[in-house]
Amino acid sequence: MAVKPIRIWPDPVLCRRTREVSHVDDSTAALVSDLFDTMYAESGIGLAANQIGTTLRVAVIDLDPQRKAPHDPEVRAELQAWGFTAPLAFINPKIVAASGYIIWEEGCLSVPGVLDNVKRRRRVRVRALDLQGKPFTMELEGLFAVALQHELDHLDGKVFIEYLPRLKQQSIRRRMQRQRSAGGKAGGRAGGNAEAATLPVVEGSDPPLTSVI
């Protein structure tokens, strides 16, 4: 419906935990539409509601915004291996199980120009509501799992740089504050906490993978 301004960290709305959607209705659908429109306009693959200033537990993910999968068997196979088949909205998402670890280089529309490695769970099981208010459960892996964890962090009032050393965080904070003061606009590509890890936890030693989410 509309492209919204991206909030730049440490904007206070990005530092507060969002609240659950009590009833999925037309306003929820409008929010999801705004999230997708904004994400695509900013060349992202994931976006959380508080990144556009709305403090509700809603996020969207599309790992194939350029629609390469229908024409590229390798891309299609990789997305399918991750559990991704189509753009998806997650309403009141909660990770209920996780296993393994992976290191991925992440970026964020709310922290433009910053990339760094973050250790995430390799596989997650998520429960959420769809746009009809019906619950669903999904198994995610690889970049899909990383993107969801990135967006869940946003919904919990956390950005990916908070996994970095304190001095690096302070340097990035100063840079973002200068950018906000100058009216800077987010650029680059967006990303994207297991609450009950019930799947077997496997400590991996895989080399870092690189993708800006």
Please, could you describe this protein's structure?
It contains four helices and six strands. It is globular. Helices cover about 25% and strands about 25% of the residues. It is α+β, with helices and mostly antiparallel strands. Strands 1, 2, 3, 4, 5 and 6 form a six-stranded mixed beta sheet that branches.
Q: How much helical structure, as a percent, in the residues?
A: 25-40%
Indicate the mean pLDDT.
Answer: 87
Based on Cα principal axes, name the global outline.
globular
Q: Please count the beta strands (DSSP E, at least 2 residues each).
A: 6
Order of helices and strands: HEEHEEEHHE
Q: Name the poorly predicted regions.
A: 186-212
Our measurement of the CA-to-CA distance between the termini, rounded to an integer number of angstroms, reads 23 Å
Secondary-structure class: alpha+beta
Largest sheet: 6 strands, mixed
List the helices and strands and how they pair.
Elements: H1 26-41, E1 46-48, E2 58-61, H2 73-82, E3 88-108, E4 111-129, E5 135-141, H3 142-155, H4 166-181, E6 209-210
Parallel strand pairs: 3-6
Antiparallel strand pairs: 1-2, 2-3, 3-4, 4-5
Summary of the model, kept short:
By secondary structure, the protein is an alpha+beta fold.
